[in-house]
Specification:
The complex is a heterodimer of chains A (about 250) and B (about 425).
Chain A: E1 2-11, E2 14-24, E3 29-33, H1 40-48, E4 53-62, E5 65-66, H2 72-78, E6 80-83, E7 90-94, H3 95-103, H4 109-118, E8 128-129, H5 135-149, E9 153-157, H6 165-178, E10 191-195, E11 209-214, E12 217-222, H7 224-249
Parallel strand pairs in A: 3-10, 3-11, 6-9, 9-10
Antiparallel strand pairs in A: 1-2, 1-4, 4-5, 7-8, 11-12
Helix pairs in contact in A: 3-5, 5-6
Chain B: H1 19-27, H2 62-70, E1 83-88, E2 91-97, E3 102-106, H3 107-113, H4 131-138, E4 144-148, E5 158-164, E6 170-179, E7 184-193, E8 200-210, E9 215-223, E10 228-238, E11 243-250, E12 256-259, E13 262-265, E14 271-280, E15 285-288, E16 291-294, E17 300-309, E18 313-322, E19 328-337, E20 343-352, E21 358-366, H5 370-377, H6 383-395, H7 404-421
Parallel strand pairs in B: 1-5, 4-6, 5-7, 6-8, 7-9, 8-10, 9-11, 10-12, 10-13, 11-14, 12-15, 13-16, 14-17, 15-18, 16-18, 17-19, 18-20, 19-21
Antiparallel strand pairs in B: 1-2, 3-4
Helix pairs in contact in B: 1-4, 5-6
Classes of the chains: A alpha/beta (about 250), B alpha/beta (about 425).
């Protein structure tokens, strides 16, 4: 289980997240919607533990342990993984190296080959990671690394952005495998938190819990499909008014 | 075939060289080099005791063989070598060759065998370039001669070692490498010393002649000590459709090294490629570059250098000059500064002298990007593991055209040295 309690976060002194509360149970997939700049990526990066994201208040608990001050690599080893929206190019470090590093001691050439085949990246294994990759190739490479890591909590930052329709279906399939969607909820070990800007990925990945983030605050929660329909009809502007009203009613 | 010399090893070969060369050398004996700090040559002796000839170099003691292995020389099992040349101080102590159509011998012996060889002396490198070339001309202590006959392609590399065992000794060698038409020659050469922390100096002139359609790969590994001064002077002349591929690895400590090998692509479609991997330890001064002149239509070049400083100073140079239509050149200097102290000065230069040429360069110097470290840490690596992985990747240069066996050996040399500083 992931529990985020009253979390406030600043980046380089500027407050981005305010009093965020969120709980993801084992086996659940949650979806975070919201306009650009609302703080969605900040929340994911903070859960992962990037040092630039300073927790000014609140706590993050994962598997019952307070990880608020835990270094990022320890969080990864504890079972948190992230798919980056725009990962860096690392010259000289091959895609294969990243997959093997993600698998750690379980890595074998056969497993690497299987994952590469599954993500349609066999020809990319010997290439420098992310160097000259298209948008879709980057997303598939990120999914390949996460499938290698097998995290208990997968943080997916806009997994469909820059991906063509054919590849969105593949990305959706890979996410479903990662989050064990074929297994009944009670037997799953994986949790997911997915940021989506367009909502396209929801056509392929089933999720029941959705949130809207506005100005660093979770302002709405409910069925992600219903929220998305509302947003498509009224835009985030209506959400802002609704959130404003809610705040004043409270 | 064993090439034991018939005469004493320190052979004076001046008789084969024109007086004018000697005069030119004499006039340049105090001429400072255009680059790099000036070395006072009077602090070094030229004389060293003779070493016995070794018919079987595996008989050398274990410590010597270990140093040579570090520099790429396999003596216990030379089955994957076409030939071997070893010079210790002034003395060629072994030369042998296993394949027909390949010559490997001390250059003094080659001068006796081939009258025409004098024509190749100082044809690619000017004898009066500086005091170091002059010193080699006036006080030469042999060197190696390696040649492939027309059409001969070596199955395995020839290995050559220039070894220093005497303190305060200056080694002056002159090497001549000739790949005759349509031949293929691979060389791995290691320059090293048994001296722990005692000073020494190595001056080596190497002249490469790559004839029409020939291919030469030259992989040089330097393994000196923190007190060594090194001044190689290298040039290659490449004829039509010829290829010169030069790889240089310097990852062990050195006091000062300056070299700027030149390739002249004089024939149509001639190609020169230089790859350098440089690591400067504290107090090391490294000034290494490559200069390529694209003098014929279709000639091309690629110069790639990777420099890491751990406190020392590196000047990474590159110069490409386009003098004919349709030539292409790419220059890439990348430098990583891993410590608070240390300097990397990348100097990429391009000069085009006519339209219809295509030259470009990339240069980047800096520390490891935090974003890259964090990307790897997000996969579970510690900061140290992530940094080491990125540094290893930085040093990994994929060399087009290098046989996989040599590539493996090059990577092995890099990996061995990596362990020293990571």
């Amino acid at each position: 289980m992931l529990e985020i309690k009253n979390l406030s976060v600043a980046v380089e002194g500027k407050k981005i997240l305010h009093n965020v509360n969120l709980t993801i149970g084992t086996g659940e997939t949650h979806v975070l919607l919201g306009p650009n700049g609302s703080g969605k990526t900040t929340l994911l990066m903070t859960i992962m533990g990037f040092p630039k994201y300073q927790v000014t208040d609140g706590n993050i608990l994962f598997k019952g342990e307070d990880i608020t001050k835990m270094p990022m690599d320890e969080r990864a080893r504890l079972g948190i993984g992230i798919s980056f929206q725009r990962p860096p190019v690392v010259r000289g470090v091959k895609t294969k190296d990243m997959v093997m590093a993600s698998m750690k001691d379980k890595s074998t050439p056969e497993l690497v080959a299987t994952l590469a085949n599954k993500t349609d990246l066999t020809e990319f294994l010997e290439r420098d990671i992310n160097y000259g990759f298209s948008g879709g190739e980057i997303k598939r490479s990120e999914m390949m690394q996460l499938l290698a890591q097998k995290p208990d909590l997968a943080l997916l930052d806009e997994p469909e952005s820059g991906v063509d329709l054919e590849n969105i279906a593949l990305i959706g399939k890979l996410i479903n495998e990662l989050l064990e969607k074929d297994s009944p909820m009670h037997s799953r070990n994986s949790m997911g938190l997915i940021i989506t800007h367009t909502g396209h990925i929801l056509e392929y990945v089933n999720a029941r819990n959705g949130y809207i983030m506005l100005d660093g605050t979770i302002s709405c929660m409910g069925d992600p499909h219903e929220i998305l329909t509302e947003i498509k009809a009224c835009g985030y502007g209506q959400c802002a008014k609704c959130a404003f009203r809610s705040a004043h009613h409270v | 075939m064993d090439n034991a010399p018939n005469a004493p090893s320190e052979v004076h070969i001046m008789s084969n060289i024109s007086e004018s060369k000697k005069e030119k050398a004499q006039s340049a004996i105090n001429k400072k080099a255009a680059m790099g700090e000036d070395i006072d040559l009077s602090q070094f002796t030229r004389s060293a005791e003779e070493h016995p000839y070794r018919k079987d170099p595996s008989e050398l003691n274990a410590a010597t063989k270990s140093k040579m292995l570090e520099a790429g020389l396999m003596l216990d099992d030379p089955s994957q070598r076409t030939g071997t040349f070893i010079q210790m101080d002034n003395t060629p102590i072994h030369s042998s060759v296993k394949e027909e159509g390949v010559e490997v011998m001390p250059v003094s012996q080659a001068m006796k065998k081939h009258d025409w060889l004098a024509d190749y002396y100082w044809k690619a490198v000017a004898v009066d370039t500086d005091k170091y070339t002059a010193s080699v001309e006036l006080g030469q202590n042999d060197g190696y001669f390696i040649r492939t006959l027309p059409g001969v392609k070596t199955n395995y590399p020839v290995q050559a070692c220039l070894y220093l065992s005497k303190a305060k000794f200056a080694q002056n060698v002159h090497n001549i490498i000739i790949a005759e038409e349509n031949s293929e020659l691979h060389i791995i050469t290691g320059c090293t010393t048994s001296l722990g922390n005692e000073p020494g100096m190595h001056m080596g002139v190497s002249e490469f002649y790559i004839k029409k359609g020939a291919k030469v790969t030259f992989t040089m590994i330097h393994s000196w000590n923190p007190e060594f001064a090194v001044r190689p002077r290298t040039a290659a002349i490449i004829e039509e459709d010829g290829l010169f591929l030069s790889n240089y690895v310097l990852m062990k400590p050195v006091n000062t090294i300056q070299m700027n090998p030149i390739a002249r692509c004089n024939g149509k479609n001639a190609t020169a490629r230089f790859n350098s991997i440089l690591v400067a330890r504290p107090d090391s001064n490294i000034d290494v570059g490559s200069r390529v002149y694209l003098n014929a239509p279709g000639a091309r070049t690629e110069i790639i250098s990777r420099a890491i400083t751990m406190g020392g100073n590196i000047v990474a140079r590159g110069y490409i000059e386009g003098n004919a239509p349709g030539v292409k050149g790419h220059l890439e200097c990348r430098g990583l500064i891993l410590t608070e102290k240390g300097t990397i000065h990348a100097i990429p230069e391009l000069k085009g002298n006519l339209a219809g040429i295509d030259l470009y360069h990339e240069a980047a110097v800096g520390k490891i990007a935090e974003e890259e470290v964090e990307y790897l840490m997000a996969r579970g690596m510690t900061r140290e593991q992530a940094t080491a992985t990125i540094v290893r990747g930085f040093l990994r240069v994929d060399i087009e055209g290098l046989p996989s066996m040599l590539n493996d050996e090059l990577q092995r040399a890099v990996k061995t040295s990596e362990n020293d500083f990571m």
